[in-house]
Amino acid sequence: MQVSVEAGEGLERKLKIQIPTETVETQVESRLKSMVSRVKIDGFRPGKVPLKIVRQHYGDQVFQEVASELIQKSFHDALTQEDLNPAGDPAISTDGIKPGAPLEYTATFEVYPKVELSPVEDLKLEKIKSAVSDADVDNMIETLRKQRTTWEVVDRASTDDDRVTIDFIGKVDGEAFDGGSAEGVAVTIGSGSMIPGFEDKLIGLKAADETTFEVKFPEDYQADHLAGKEAEFEVKLIDVRESALPEVDEEFATAFGVEDGSIEQLRNDIRGNMEREMESRIRAEMKNAVMDQLIESNPLEVPAAIVKHEAETLKKQTAAQMPGADQPIEVYMDEATRRVKLGLILAEVVKKAELKPDPVRVRERVEQMSKDYEDPDEFVRYYQGNPQLLRGIETLVMEDLVVDWIVDRAGVNETECSFDDLMYKSQ
User: Fold this and answer.
1) Other beta carbons within 10 Å of 45
2) Residue 377 and which of 87, 150, 187, 252 are 20 to 30 A apart at CA?
3) Of 104, 81, 109, 140, whose CA–CA distance to 11 is shortest?
């Protein structure tokens, strides 16, 4: 077998392979002879068909089968011989394969790049240090109170933050428009749920008051036929309600799972949850920083075929999570490129650091996830019985091991951050 390698643009490689005529003919002849005892041809007894007749009937078919198998085997042998690592399937081209001539073909494909890691010690990372204060717990309790807000009818004029119930009819150019009229609609003044200016006109009204006012639809309003137009609304106010927050008492604590209604236990539970969220966010921030720096410090050309495949996977995942979403594949290419680069770099880190999946950490990760479910034990059993799900957890654990290995060796600067800034800085 003769093999030559040509380097194309970027990661493209071309293998030109020639298999001697004798090799092809020997395998064709051997296969035809093995068929003599098995084939059935009219006019001949089973096992007595002459080789010449078998060749006439099956020669072309056997030649094509042998050629296909030789191409497949010789391609893999050539990869080993030339120490090439293909990314994706090759495109096979020939000038025609004919009996009595050498089997010649060209395999065009991309190879994976060789990853040479930059020194991990040169990486500069920021490690966040935070804590949950009593004030943070107070703020969370206040948030929980607002989640259980009740609305009580009051006999007064409406003000900001009140919830009013209204009937309204909207008109543009004197004509009612679709969606512009409704009855019994609850509007919280200042929430921004109505078009700009609408809620302001409701301030100062009492139950049974009627009013007419004009507002203008935004220029970028989703309904093109209304965008930028002046509208007139006739409004009747049915009632005014003000918010009432629950007291932080035994009943409140019980509602959040504290069986004895202890306020102190409620605060401890809330603090524990907040600290778990905080640690998770700190970990996520560090992981993102490590991944960003790995990509930045290790420039890498990636195989287009693998990136395209990853983009197609992202597109399918998006469609599964958001039925009806049908964005072009180009939308996913940047994220796909990042993922492929990270995958190659992380694989090299794992190899260099000789990291292996840690069963204990896999188990701990599953148990940590189970705390968010009603039956944690059932959740753990379900994961342990599903190898595919466990492989996903193993991947996450391996990423954690990579982060730990890099943080232990990189330059790390500690930065103080409040709980609120940590948890809500990206919002």
Assistant:
1) 8
2) 252
3) 109
Token pair for 210 = 């009627």
> What dihedral do alpha carbons 251, 257, 261, 262 form, nearest 10°?
-130
Number of structural domains the chain divides into: 3
Q: Read off the DSSP letter of residue 106.
A: E
Q: What is the pLDDT of residues 280-338, one digit of tens each?
A: 999 999 999 999 999 999 999 999 999 999 999 999 999 888 887 788 999 999 999 99
> What digits encode the pLDDT tens for the residues 335-374?
999 999 999 999 999 999 999 988 899 999 899 889 878 8
CATH number, domain with residue 258? 1.10.3120.10
For tokens 């203008």, name the residue: 216
Is the same domain home to 77 and 158?
Answer: no
| Residue 172, φ and ψ in degrees, nearest 5 | -125, 125
- Which of 160, 154, 150 is closest to 206 using CA atoms? 154
Rounded (10°) angle between helices 134-147 and 263-297: 100
How many alpha carbons lie under 13 Å from residue 253 in its C-beta half-sphere? 16
Residue 145 domain flag: no
Q: What are the pLDDT digits (tens) for 213-257?
A: 999 999 999 899 999 999 999 999 999 999 999 999 999 999 999
Q: Which two tokens stand for residue 161?
A: 């933050």
Tell me: do 126 and 272 sit in the same domain: yes
Rounded to whole angstroms, the Cα distance separating 200 from 214 reads 11
Tell me: do 18 and 167 sit in the same domain.
no
Contacts of 345 (CB under 8 A, 6+ apart): 115, 117, 294, 295, 298, 300
DSSP letters of 243-307? EEPPPSSHHHHHHTT-TT--HHHHHHHHHHHHHHHHHHHHHHHHHHHHHHHHHHHS-----HHHH
- Which residue from 186, 136, 190 is spatially nearest to 166, judged by alpha carbons? 186
396 falls within a domain: yes
| 351 and 238 fall within a common domain | no
CB atoms < 10 A from the CB of 11, how many? Answer: 19
Distance of CA 84 to the CA centre of its chain: 31
**Residue 302 sits in the same domain as residue 163:** no
- pLDDT tier at 46 (50, 70, 90 boundaries)? confident
Which helix (DSSP H) or strand (DSSP E) does residue 103 occupy?
strand 103-111
Please give the residue range of the domain that contains residue 296: 120-133+253-424
Residue with tokens 């009818």: 153
Strand 150-154 and strand 103-111: the pairing is unpaired
